[in-house]
Design brief:
The protein has one domain. Helix content is 80%, strand content 0%. With 161 residues, the protein is mostly helical. α1 packs antiparallel against α2 (29-51), α2 packs across α3 and α6 (107-118) packs across α7. The protein has helices at 3-22, 29-51, 55-61, 65-76, 82-100, 107-118, 123-131, 133-159. The chain is built from 8 helices and no strands.
Length: 161
């Protein structure tokens, strides 16, 4: 295994360990969404930086979550994981709702929309989110993180060939 692939593997393992450490497995829905959003934002930054010829320019751009997700999607979109990208944008809407409202009146509608969008349009997924919001959010965030970690790893591997 060459040094680049080893570094890529270490980066992927570190990212997964960070998700395992910081993403609550149960408990307060707001905390799950806020921490999940932060973890995904870190991974989006790492992914976009891995594709940049001048990663420092990405850092100095001070891109928001939405900006990072938009650039990452533009660079790495594959239709087979299209719903994952859509779910990342819906997660951002959920996070914004929770960050700006103590008691968001439309939280259930946004949770339901997250489920429908993240499942590729299956209406029953929206009801599943409402029946177990914490469990579904944790699982969904883990999937989004896994996709991003995989993209970061493959990007690092491609750079070494």
């Amino acid at each position: 295994m060459n040094m680049q692939n080893r570094s890529s593997l270490e980066q992927a393992v570190d990212a997964k360990l960070r998700v395992m450490k910081h993403l609550p497995k149960q408990g307060d829905l707001s905390l799950i969404i806020l921490k999940g959003h932060l973890l995904i934002e870190e991974l989006l930054f790492a992914l976009v930086s891995s594709a940049a010829k001048d990663p420092a320019a990405i850092k100095s751009a001070n891109l928001s979550y939405y900006g990072l997700a938009s650039v990452a999607k533009a660079l790495f979109y594959e239709s087979r994981v299209g719903p994952v990208w859509d779910a990342m944008f819906e997660l951002n809407k959920l996070r914004n709702t929770l960050a700006h409202n103590l008691e968001p009146p439309d939280l259930n509608e946004k949770l339901k929309r997250f489920g429908v969008v993240g499942s590729g349009g299956h209406a029953e997924a929206g009801n599943l989110v409402l029946s177990d919001p914490e469990g579904v959010m944790v699982s969904s965030i883990e999937v989004m993180c896994g996709v991003l970690i995989g993209l970061i790893s493959s990007q690092s591997s491609e750079g070494s060939t």
